[in-house]
Amino acid sequence: MNTSWTHTTVLLNEAVDALFNDPQAAPGAATDCYVDATFGRGGHSRLILSRLAPQGRLIAFDKDPDALTAAASLDDSRFSIRHQGFAQLGELPKASVIGVLLDLGISSPQIDNPLRGFSFRFEGPLDMRMDTTRGISVAQWLATAETEKIAEVIRDYGEERFAGAIAKAIVARRQERGAISTTTELAQLVADTVKTREPGQNPATRTFQAFRIFINAELEELQQALEASLEVLQPSGRLVVISFHSLEDRIVKQFIAKHSRDEYDRRAPFAAPKVMKLEAIARVKPSAAEVAANPRARSAIMRVAQRTAA
Hints:
Layout: H1 12-19, E1 33-36, H2 43-51, E2 57-61, H3 65-71, E3 79-82, E4 97-103, H4 108-112, H5 138-142, H6 147-158, H7 163-177, H8 183-193, H9 205-215, H10 218-232, E5 233-243, H11 246-259, E6 278-284, H12 288-293, E7 301-307
Parallel strand pairs: 1-2, 1-4, 2-3, 4-5
Antiparallel strand pairs: 5-7, 6-7
């Protein structure tokens, strides 16, 4: 792992302050357990540990083998990490956690390492898997996927209006010269197909986003993790989620809204309603100073909710 690929944690203090509920208070109870469901390079985890009681616990999750390598440098008996995605959050005991943090952003080392295949800025294998030890790469999927499926993925996960044309171009290229295998090949094909684009945005941005989300089942895993958080959080426990694009944020926003109101069954109007499970607390954007120092923070939105006693 190249240590020159650094990562700046977005909304670092804001997220941990929200997780601990009252940043001015003394460390939590000795048995308090927190979850950093996306360890990344450990920015949030390190700050959580600095505020954790001596007998508290922090459990981290991450699918990326490089993240586990980074976690090995954390010498703290209160800390443990699982080589799992946050969809496995529900494996923790019910009502065992006082705070869950989900930072949904891809880490800078993942983007900047050409071998991971996440970026159109570098020549590299068209991989994009968060967990390189399992599953198929984007290149492998594109080698056999049908035009309609490729278009559906680009449209649904990239919100790309030229999805159909890009999908046809990918399949035509595969039939003429073989499947696309590198990031630069895909980026050039998209650029040749998409003739107009928002100023300052690479034509391949939406397509790369779509393939990354699809190949890692990111939105499905997010839904699973959010539902699991309701089970593992204790009453008054905090859920903190940092999103970086509209698809993620929409899911989080709708999830919190759904569980922040009493639900009535229209088929049984006299039945007692299902009592709300969450209380929406805050919506936070990075400050102008943070965005100026770290442009990758500009699209971040943090939503905070608190588990009710229901």
